[in-house]
Design goal:
alpha/beta; pyruvate; three-stranded antiparallel sheet
Length: about 475
């Protein structure tokens, strides 16, 4: 493997890349893996490069992905903003939706979570008592309604053959993205794997940019080149297709936050399937060694690709996997439990106590991906039981009604408006054109090393770019 290198071909920018040996093209082009960022050249660039050399020479145990992620953020905190187009609308449209439903003067309500919300490991349980505004509760429901409708629309577009390739939906898991985001600030960082549409929206991606990306259109959040698994937004690092590879990157981002002295945290998410990856344990080690402000989150939806978690893991107590890192198992079907756990975890990490491992127990209603019916390794009755007893939207709806915050009719109005917004976004996304072939290599190769031609898209075809 090669040391990360800095290219100063363009004096106004610095290109930072990490390459594996064996994937350099015969034309000398270096394919970036797993990330490519185009950064504004700041005075930190040279010192960052020297620091990277120090890290590589001082010890052999460093995971280079962690170092690259840390250095990328160190050179410029705005790397994602510069590398990918920003969403058309930074803030979720939920803010305009819920304001028409909630009262003019938002009331503060006190809620006590069930005792079963948390199961702790080597740490004390956070308080079950939550003080939260009624507006925020309605906003959380609205965001879940929008993300549910977003996934349903993606499902329909895929079946209509308007979305191609991989597509992993998170229908049933809405409480995770919404609950986490309710506890974070825009300065906190988040990275996850696929099944990332809801996270992209909650981190600031517009509905149009997400749906356009799914359909491979120019207005997509990654210019139509990333698809379902590769979406990015400010303070959101994806959306990554390699199982578990995002976890060391998350540790690297947390490393940068600590180095810069920022009182912020990184949430690094992965699934129960990725929990068995060796690089996850490497990341645990580094995070604990330096007490990084990193919250490792196992999003346990009970099933991997084609099998139940208990058939693939010797232990399904994922919150205990790190051993030397405290953890908690959280009811991931309850947005408020996720919110409370995320709030507590953030405070834990930024106070210097080191990393945490959270296991959010949730459930996906669909298959692993659109090619998986999801019923060969579980029964339809099981799915229906989860829908009828543990659905995250149903749980929040019941709270809103029981607390006299919203009526049944007002909640139906939110759902209706959510559908209208997503349907309109789908029309706009579909009207977007496909990206120009000249975009084929941008943000894929180190600037200046793009190949002069590309072959293999169709038999006997060679396309020359210039």
């Amino acid at each position: 493997m090669h040391i990360p290198e800095i290219s100063l071909e363009d004096p106004s920018h610095v290109c930072f890349a990490y390459t594996h040996s064996g994937i350099n093209t015969n034309a000398g082009s270096k394919i970036i893996h797993p990330i490519h960022v185009s950064l504004d050249l700041q005075n930190a660039a040279v010192s960052s490069y020297i620091f990277s050399s120090f890290l590589y020479s001082s010890s052999s145990f460093f995971n280079p992905y962690i170092v690259v992620a840390m250095l990328s953020l160190l050179v410029s905190p705005s790397l994602v903003r510069n590398s990918f187009p920003r969403a058309a609308a930074f803030s979720p449209v939920a803010r305009s939706l819920f304001s028409t439903t909630s009262s003019a003067n938002s009331n503060v309500v006190n809620i006590t979570l069930p005792e079963t919300s948390f199961e702790m490991y080597n740490c004390e349980r956070p308080s079950l008592d939550i003080e939260i505004s009624s507006d925020k509760l309605v906003e959380m429901y609205t965001n879940m309604s929008i993300t549910r409708r977003l996934e349903m629309t993606a499902d329909a577009l895929y079946k209509a053959k308007k979305i191609r390739g991989f597509c992993h939906l998170a229908t049933g898991q809405e409480a995770v993205a919404v609950g986490i985001e309710a506890a974070l600030t825009p300065q906190d960082q988040l990275i996850t794997a696929y099944r990332c549409h809801g996270f992209t929206y909650m981190r600031g991606g517009s509905l149009v940019s997400i749906l356009a990306e799914l359909m491979g259109r120019r207005d997509g959040i990654s210019k139509g080149k990333g698809g379902s698994m590769h979406m990015f937004a400010p303070a959101f690092y994806g959306g990554n297709g390699v199982v578990g590879a995002q976890v060391p990157l998350g540790a690297g981002i947390a490393f940068a936050q600590q180095y810069l002295g920022n009182k912020t945290t990184t949430f690094a998410l992965y699934g129960d399937g990725a929990a068995n990856q060796g690089q996850v344990f490497e990341s645990y080690n580094m995070a604990k060694l330096w007490d990084l402000p990193c919250v490792f989150i196992c999003e346990n939806n009970k099933y991997g690709m084609g099998t139940a978690a208990n058939r693939a893991s010797a232990s399904t107590e994922y919150h205990k996997r790190a051993g030397y890192i405290p953890g908690a198992r959280v009811d991931g079907m309850d947005a408020l439990a996720v919110f409370r756990a995320s709030e507590w975890a953030k405070e834990w990490t930024i106070s210097g106590k080191g990393p945490l491992v959270l296991e959010l127990t949730t459930y996906r209603y669909g298959g692993h991906s659109m090619s998986d019916p999801g019923t060969t390794y579980r029964t339809r009755d099981e799915i229906q039981q989860m829908r009828s007893t543990s659905d995250p939207l149903m749980n929040m709806k019941k709270r809103l009604i029981d607390l006299n915050i919203a009526t049944e009719a007002e909640i139906k109005a939110i759902d209706k408006e959510s559908r209208k917004l997503v349907d309109q976004a789908a029309k706009e996304a579909e009207a977007s054109t496909e990206p120009d072939v000249g975009e084929f290599c941008t943000e894929v190769y180190v600037r200046g090393t793009e190949p002069k031609s590309i072959r293999g898209r169709v038999p006997e075809e060679t396309h020359y770019f210039y």
